[in-house]
Amino acid sequence: MAPGALLLEAQREYEKESQKADEYLREIKDQNLLSEAVRQCIEAAGYEHEPETQKSLLRAASFGKCFLDKFPPESFVRTCRDLRVLNAIWDYQIGIPLTFAQYKQLTIEVLLDRLVLRRLYPLAIRICEYLRLSEFQGVSRILAHWACYKVQQKDKSDEEVAHAINQKLGDTPGISYSEIAARAYDCGRTELAIKLLEYEPRSGEQVPLLLKMKKSQLALNKAIESGDTDLVYTVVLHLKNELNRGTFFMTLQKQPVALSLYRQFCKHQELETLKDLYNQDDDHQELGNFHVHSSYSSEKRIEGRVAALQNAVDEYYKAKNEFAAKATEDQIKLLRMQRRLQDDLDKPYVDYSLHDTVYGLILDGNHKRAEHLYRDFRVPDKRFWWLKIGALAEREDWEEMEKFSKSKKSPIGYLPFVEICMKHHNRHEARKYAARVTPEQRVKAHILVGELDQAADAAIEHKNETEMNLVLSKCTAATDSSVAEKINRAKAQSLKK
Amino acid sequence: MAAHLSSGRVNLTALREAGRRELREFLDKCAGSKAIVWDEYLTGPFGLIAQYSLLKEHEVEKMFTLKAGRLPPADVKNIIFFVRPRLELMDIIAENVLSEDRVRSPLRDFHILFVPRRSLLCEQRLKDQGVLGSFIHREQYSLDLIPFDGDLLSMESESAFKECYLENDQTSLYHAAKGLMTLQALYGTIPQIFGKGDCARHVANMMIRMKREFPGGQNSIFPVFDTLLLLDRNVDLLSPLATQLTYEGLIDEIYGIQNTYVKLPPEKFLPKKQGEGGKDLPTEPKKLQLNSAEELYAEIRDKNFNAVGSVLSKKAKIISAAFEERHHAKTVGEIKQFVSQLPHMQAARSSLANHTSIAELIKDITTSEDFFDNLTVEQEFMSGIDTDKVNNYTEDCIAQKHPLIKILRLVCLQSVCNSGLKQKVLDHYKREILQTYGYEHILTLNNLEKAGLLKLQTSSRNNYPTIRKTMRLWMDDVNEQNPNDISYVYSGYAPLSVRLAQLLARPGWRSIEEVLKILPGPHFEERQQLPTGLQKKRQQGENRITLVFFLGGVTYAEIAALRFLSQMEDGGTEYVIATTKLINGTNWIKSLMEKLEPPPF
Predict the structure, then answer these.
(1) What is the least distance, in Å, from the CA of B440 to any CA of chain A?
(2) Which chain B residues have a beta carbon less than 8 Å from that of A323?
(3) Of residues B282 and A122, which shows the higher confidence score?
(4) Whole-prediction pTM value?
């Protein structure tokens, strides 16, 4: 007799409260076959079809296990679970008569697929739950299948189906509403698909399907909601091909986010469209900017550039941007003058700034023309003086500079003259102007030209400590000790008071 | 090698590691030898994640810069394009691929890695060009927030400010939200979100939405950050305009720091000993990496520049004293100990030499008259003196044609400090600028107006003084050596953005409701539910950690101010800083300029 069989007998006797149980058990144990007996009982249970028989075999195994020290529990537990699954599918209402071995060969996944194919969703879900399969592999997958089947039920209204699906699926992880929606769409139920997509949290999944279903407007909304600009672009370009231009623009009009993105796209890819967009918005400021842009980037001839700028002027006026309009008019005037200068003087002038143009003219000794531009463009006096002495110094035209300095009272004072002369290493000229600076700037001017002694005198005269310290800081011990001494004396004196 | 990333309260090495892992996984997908074709802009940021050695380990044999025409020859199996998703780059790639087929070279596999995100738009473009099918792997590498230092993350998205505030293109905000999701996946859900500004609101909305998009992925990581503060750059347009006066800030203002590297004029870095030998002067600029891995730099980077000199001379004394020690070393044991410390001492000495040279370079500039005059005017504006009339200094600078960006910074600063300029003043400046620098700058001026940097005073009321007083933005008694307030970073001006963070931590924004209403955009608070068990139980005296995210850029001076707050003994909050881009006034204004060039004749 096999040890398993003996164990089964032992258990039966035990239930009858007969001492034979002990006898049988001893017999097995003496041969050291108890664990073998348990194993046999468990295995045998797998081959039995009657739940009662299975149960008594398993009970015997369980009984035997009590007398064993370290029998690993897995095989027992697994068999119990598997048998429960098998018993369920052997039920006459299901009718899948798989043997234990067949079942093991097939794997649970395949069994689940078969159940799904037979639309035995509740049983499949119960099995998943019972076997504690991960949601992703198990319940979610089956629910998704169920939902995909559900959408094909034509007798129910879209609302009912969508509601039923959402009720069952909720926020189950791993559920892709977009897949279910795609199935619904394949079955020709567009409205249902849209309803289902509402439950899809990932916009990236919603948008492509909505586009496929030609629900571009909705797709646009979803794309914008997601914040993913790439998705928005995709929809916008899709819309552009799908709609006629007017409708397309109207659609964008309602979606500022999409509109600005499309503008960016046009800026790099389709400049003419950009203009149309601004036109439609009556955005005259941007239209003005647009023309300025094209005056630089797409026009080569002066006439073309002037014409583009003229367009800009008109737009700026319409935008009530008087400043920009006037500035642009000035630029047109400047361009024309520069062209004339270029022709007359055979030197490049076009596209220099007004400042650089005047500077260039002075540098070449064309003082009259420079003067003319300065008046014509109402350059502020101060700036013109800075500019002119800079150019004259670069030209080393000291005579002209002196003449200019005496033409009227300098609006910038005479310190800049000193500075500019020193910058061009002409101490001699610088001294002339140092004498003419205002008293407040005298110390600085003397320092600049290197007349520390006079600087010291001026500072002492001003009784200005900061100035005195400034002079002192410029004194070197070797050469200017007398100056330093003078200042220190003065400082000491002022301290006494 | 990336030790500085783990030096702070939050270990940012994990973020870098995640980035490296993702990169390795992609490279291994393309089996065999490889050549990478780089979108040039990406090389700098990538360098902070992975050096060439990592690429080499994964069979990357050649690297090219993406440019039009035919790809250079390379005997490799795979060609991988690392690019940002931009249409113009797609056209170049298409050209590369198409011209490749004509040559009868061995067949090479093409792949494309989009950084930071795959784009349907770009793939459509490749499809239109007929090359989409040529790519075996088309993937994305979500390099959003790149760790720059132990407490600093940047997206290095150059044009983020312009796109968000000028063009209403919120792509970079989407990336920012994605970056924050990645951060939360690694460091736990951030329970509290505060924000100020339209962009901040948008990012917060996207984060909440994205959280819903990942159902089931209930984050089970214990949250590291307590609070996220999202700040729009346009809430505080002032701070980047002012000249930064911290050591690091000045290095950036003068030489420009890029991806933690700075290039300096080489003259000051000659090796001392052979300097006289009549050798050729080095013409290559000296390139240095600046981060907190360098002990000395970590100590001085955030100090006011006027306080750096004394630290450097103190260090010099300590180091020479340490070297003197060798004369006292008598026993073999003592000598051995001295020698073991030698590498560290030598590193310290060379670090000191470098920073002394940099400090000298900067001092030459900060002691110049023009720097002083410029700073004086800035400070007058910020403290509210004569902001409503044309400024003489600015006028003179224009007349002498100083760099345009300097002028624009001054004029914008004045406009911001006066809540806009009067029509007459504004028009005068604009006219002066156009006449001097050229009419083509009219579009730049328009951009500055659109961004709100330059504007017409509409209401008769100037709000800036109210903001200045309530937020204590101007401090007269600033202590540069031993600061007691964040205003030391600009020698008087306390950056508004950082004040907002400071007041949020204590006593809370409710105290400044009035000012918040004046500043642009909504302010808000959101809470993200944490599963029970992940709620923090704080130890007595343990600081809170706040992540401050600057949308549209942050300056080094602002970072320094936040670090100062982190270190305050009774501060109670430590800050980690994230941004779309590290900026200074110059590169910021530059990003807003419209480059119009006259056509060639």
Answers:
(1) 8
(2) 427, 430-431
(3) A122
(4) 0.86
Per-residue pLDDT tens for B133-153?
A: 989 999 999 989 999 999 999
Residue of A nearest to B88 (CA): A268
ipTM for this model: 0.89
- CA dist list (Å): B285 to B59, B258, B272: 32, 14, 17
Q: Does residue B524 have a pLDDT over 60? A: yes
- Residue from B106, B126, B103 nearest B35 by CA: B106
What single-letter DSSP state applies at residue B576? E
Specify which residues B231 forms β-bridges with.
B196, B550
Residue B403: cis peptide before it, omega within 30 degrees of 0: no
Of A171, A202, A289, the CB nearest to B443: A289
| Residues in chain B closer than 8 A to A289 (CB atoms) | 443, 446
Other beta carbons less than 10 A from residue B265's beta carbon: 12
CB-based contact A383 B436, cutoff 8 Å: yes
Enumerate the residues of chain A whose CB falls inside 8 A of the CB of residue B398. Answer: 383
Total residue length of chain A: 497
Burial B312-337 (b: 16+ CB within 10 A, else e): beebeeebeebeeeeeeeeeeeeeee
Which residues share a beta bridge with B286?
Answer: B264
| A225 touching B (Cβ < 8 Å) | yes
Residue whose entry in the numeric block shows the structure tokens 């403290």: B383
Q: What is the pLDDT of residues A66-86, one digit of tens each?
A: 888 888 888 899 999 999 999
Give B121's contacts in chain A (Cβ within 8 Å).
230, 233-234, 237
Q: Give dist(CA B172, CA A360) in Å, integer.
A: 45
C-alpha to C-alpha distance for A365 and A368, rounded to whole angstroms? 9
Cβ-defined contact of B442 to A328 (cutoff 8 Å): yes
- Residue in B396, B436, B597 nearest the CB of A355: B436
CA distance B293 to chain A (A): 37
Q: What is the pLDDT of residues B192-249, one digit of tens each?
A: 999 999 999 999 999 998 888 775 556 678 899 999 999 999 999 999 999 999 999 9
Q: Is the dihedral of CA B297, B299, B303, B309 positive or negative?
A: negative
Three-state SS for A135? coil
User: What CA–CA distance (Å, rounded) separates B151 from B224?
Assistant: 13
Using CA atoms, how far apart are residues A399 and A432, in angstroms rounded to an integer? 12
pLDDT in tens, A436-463: 999 888 888 998 988 888 888 888 888 8
Tokens of A389: 């002495």
Among A338, A359, A383, the residue to mutate for chain B (most B Cβ within 10 A): A383
The candidate with the shortest Cα–Cα distance to A8, out of A79, A56, A72, A68, is A56
Cα distance between residue B552 and residue B549, in whole Å: 9
User: Where does residue B384 fall: left (phi above 0), alpha (psi -120 to 50 degrees), or beta otherwise?
Assistant: left
Helices B404-416 and B585-592, axial angle in degrees (round to 10): 90
Mean pLDDT over A169-178 rounds to: 76
Which of B480, B368, B376, B463 lies closest to B415, judged by CA?
Answer: B463
- Count, residues in chain B: 601
**Positive or negative torsion for Cα B335, B341, B347, B348:** negative
What confidence category does residue B102 fall into, taking pLDDT thresholds of 50, 70 and 90?
Answer: low
> A315, A323, A417, A448: which to substitute to probe chain B, counting the most B Cβ within 10 Å?
A323
CA distance B173 to chain A (A): 8
Q: Are B575 and B562 in contact (CB under 8 A)?
A: yes
Give the bridge partners for A317, in sequence order: none
Alpha carbon of B42: minimum distance to chain A alpha carbons (Å): 20
With beta carbons less than 8 A apart as the criterion, state whether A10 and A41 touch: no
- A159 close contact with B: CB closer than 8 A: no
Query: Is A436:A445 a contact under the CB 8 Å cutoff?
Result: no
